[in-house]
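Final report, results section. Input specification for complex C-07:
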Amino acid sequence: MIVLKQKQINIVLVEPKGTINLGSVARLCENFGVNELRLVSPKCDPNDSEATRMAVRGQKILKQSTIYSSLLEAISDCPRVVATCGRKDHGEIPINSPKEALQWAISSKVDVPIAIIFGREDRGLTNQELLLANKVLTLQTSPSYPSLNLSHSVAIVLHELNRFNGKESKSTISSSHNPALPIQIDDFIEDAKELLLEIEFLLDHTSQARMNKLKMLLQRAEVRSEEIQLMRGVIRQARWALNKKDSTNP
Amino acid sequence: MIVLKQKQINIVLVEPKGTINLGSVARLCENFGVNELRLVSPKCDPNDSEATRMAVRGQKILKQSTIYSSLLEAISDCPRVVATCGRKDHGEIPINSPKEALQWAISSKVDVPIAIIFGREDRGLTNQELLLANKVLTLQTSPSYPSLNLSHSVAIVLHELNRFNGKESKSTISSSHNPALPIQIDDFIEDAKELLLEIEFLLDHTSQARMNKLKMLLQRAEVRSEEIQLMRGVIRQARWALNKKDSTNP
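Structure output:
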């Protein structure tokens, strides 16, 4: 499950200014098993109490974050570098979808360190900085207000990376339960039909169509054996209640 | 590009406590063109200055957020409801991947309001609350620290929704049928419970657990409005039959 740990993922923040953001990103690193948080000329203190509070269980990765004086230095050991861009004035720098950029980042056969760079809260990364990366990605947001908060961008990118790294959790529907046997379902339907005729909910000529509707519902639900038993219990008890009325009121 | 605007997306927060989170979620709503922010019994003030500051250009959606006293009420007009779950103790409630749940949410042919529910910062949504949704999704994170910050969960889910909304959305089970409204299902369950207590199938202390099993079955089946009506017809008729026995045997 904890797939990002297998890759050496480094999150690089360039000149982060907000302590709430910084702490939040540290928490996200822990949420997604990121190896290292790297800070390029941070404009706030990683030891600030607000950062620590926001980091929650990411405090260790926050305390161990490394500070660099230049972006180039911060990514010097990473053969695969992806930068994020929210600006529209990136000129001719090619922009990739998150899928293209992140799948490429983790597609290396050998386990190499990967860097994912996020820019300043107010103005992102410069074109010069974008050009240090192998690939640039942009997140699709509303054109009327495209600017995502820094930590939200990190959240989305790490979740995407996690997804491409191997698995999208499959539905748990019916994985651990065996659906009821066809004969069980059929017996239940017959039993229910009999009762519903008895209480005059069904008429002979419409009973088939109505019971088919019920069957379809059970089929869609992949009804389980114990659920059939539960419902047969209801029928049994309803019969008992109907008969009791008869016998106690002779 | 601004795809979410075409769908009526409502973000529902249950008992949010943190003003940073609340403001951040309002900003995200604006980032992804969400229609409405709904708050169920919020534990903090949407007009708090920190919330306003974090909302940035999402201040309008924050000010216009609607407050509800119950979750059921907050989603009463939404035929498609997805809840998020980070807990592992959700029992047998089926869990979907974000893809399965969100593609389903937006796969309706007609434009119906969609609700996406997020729980409390510290303990998420209760199982009872999860059972009000048509589908429950979980975000995959590191098993050693799975707990995402509330606004980060919202960021990831809205980005995913945006992603699926851009493409052809493959239907899961029943894109052409709208499931019953949560309130319809809830009313039916209450009605059925009453009858089952009356015929002594249920005992007071076990009724909740047994009715939950039935709810899960209906949730898995994506039960439809007309099916709920059919089953309520059964209950009505059963009551009539029970009473008839009384009155014809004085």
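Residues 77 and 113 of chain A are 7 Å apart (CA to CA). The first strand of chain A starts at residue 9 and ends at 14. This concludes the modelling results for the funded period.
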